[in-house]
TrEMBL record:
Keywords: ATP-binding, Nucleotide-binding. It comes from Streptomyces antibioticus. Residues 394-408 have a biased composition (Low complexity). Residues 394-422 are annotated as: Disordered. This is ATP-grasp domain-containing protein. Residues 132-326 form the ATP-grasp domain.
Length: 422
């Protein structure tokens, strides 16, 4: 068996506050680090989640509750650190966790190895209103975005932007689960915009109205990377969304590693200007009129499909972070353009086809079959409940079904795809 390049003496702690049981990105991180011999501790609610069936999970710890403040998050993570009894690499897997950890660096640093991220950068990029300002300063295309200060201004903004309009909450990680509010929605009338604005108090966030960029073949792109201690982007690349779930509006059901010099250049320009350090996931949509690639989201954490960008040496963004923070060389292999990543429950037919340049399934794995089996049982039960309730269920198309939101997902399943998530 080849010797792992990772320092197996240093455990990893994965933090997930969002309660989405079908978050395959967390499983990808568990498997990637576990296969390299690293002890993986998972701070997440795994009740009813296929992730708990992975043989690579060393131990599961209770997470902070949704909406937990910084003090609660710090207390949970420090309790976990006390049980592990050695410094660990800490990797947040959702926006709420990433932002909490960013603000707690001083408290957590003795117990955890963390990237030296400039203060407030994670919150700036995750905040949709701040992101528009950052893009303008860096000359990175971004859809025209307005922030109304009244219901009347919301209605007039719709007239200015033209229908349809994308409505976003600037800080989606603050949305209360019970509110029924989605992080992103399409607004089709001034009245809808007014009504949504009047719910700003519930959202605990500013309402943004944004230019709608129509979807189309080859228009949705994403870029994943790890910015090392010197700011160099490593272990990732640009990818193309071949299929989304729901169609044209959601997460990547089928993605392909595809080189795109323009997307790469925009990612490098923005991260260099920010002095960004750590894992990142950017979403772009190409404008069908101008050909410009507009940045829609900057997520300061691993994207759910980060395993797509696994090179011939097995390097991906979570391994890159572990290597960098333990002062080991990031000896990258050769990139694998054409490699495909498929999320089976959203794209069942695509999961039956083998990619000529390599393919990875989100749930199924020969060396870790438990999560795949658990996902199939849980997903069938989930779809059955939806059908009994008279709601649309996931279809058999390659990630093109409508109507079944990823359970509990705010930060990954429905964040900005209606404007064109990459």
């Amino acid at each position: 068996m080849p010797v792992s390049p990772l320092d197996a003496r240093v455990p990893a702690v994965l933090l997930r506050i969002d309660r989405n049981p079908f978050h395959h990105g967390t499983l990808g991180a568990v498997r990637s680090l576990g296969r390299a011999g690293v002890a993986v501790h998972l701070v997440a609610d795994t009740a009813g989640s296929p992730v708990r069936a992975s043989r690579f999970v060393r131990q599961v710890h209770h997470p902070p509750p949704p909406g937990a403040g910084p003090e609660e998050v710090a207390a949970v993570l420090l309790r976990v650190a006390a049980r592990i009894e050695r410094p660990a690499v800490l990797i947040p897997m959702d926006d709420a966790g990433a932002l909490a950890v960013s603000g707690l660096r001083a408290e957590l640093a003795p117990a955890y190895l963390l990237p030296r991220q400039p203060a407030a950068v994670s919150e700036q990029v995750a905040d949709k209103a701040e992101l528009a300002t950052l893009c303008a300063a860096a000359d990175v295309p971004h859809p025209v975005t307005l922030a109304p200060d009244s219901a009347a201004q919301a209605a007039s903004a719709v007239d200015r932007l033209g229908l349809p309009v994308v409505a976003k909450w600037s800080r989606p990680w603050l949305l209360p689960t019970a509110s029924g509010l989605r992080s992103t929605a399409v607004v089709r009338s001034p009245r809808e915009a007014r009504e949504l604005y009047l719910r700003s108090g519930e959202a605990d966030s500013r309402l943004l109205l944004q230019e709608f960029l129509p979807p189309g073949p080859g228009r949705d792109w994403f870029f994943h990377a790890y910015a090392d201690r010197h700011g160099t982007l490593r272990a990732g690349g640009p990818g193309r969304k071949l299929s989304a779930w729901p169609r044209g509006a959601g997460l990547t059901a089928v993605g392909e590693w595809a080189e795109n010099a323009r997307v790469r250049s925009l990612a490098e320009r923005l991260t260099e200007r920010l002095g960004y350090r750590g894992i990142l996931d950017l979403d772009f949509r190409r404008c069908g009129t101008t050909g410009d690639y507009h940045l829609l989201d900057f997520n300061p954490r691993p994207g759910a499909q980060f395993r797509l960008f696994t090179d011939t040496a097995g390097l991906d963004v979570v391994r890159a972070q572990h290597l960098d923070l333990t002062h080991r060389p990031l000896s990258a292999g050769v990139a694998r353009p054409g490699r495909v990543f498929v999320v089976e429950n959203y794209a069942p037919l695509a999961a039956l086809r083998r990619g000529p340049h390599g393919r990875e399934l989100a749930w199924g794995a020969a060396d870790d079959p438990g999560p795949g089996r658990a996902m199939r049982r849980l997903w069938c039960a989930h779809v059955g409940r939806r059908l009994r309730e008279g709601l649309p269920a996931a279809g058999a198309g390659a990630g093109r079904a409508r109507g079944v939101p990823a359970p509990g997902s705010v930060s990954d399943g429905s964040r900005t795809g209606l404007a064109g998530r990459g």
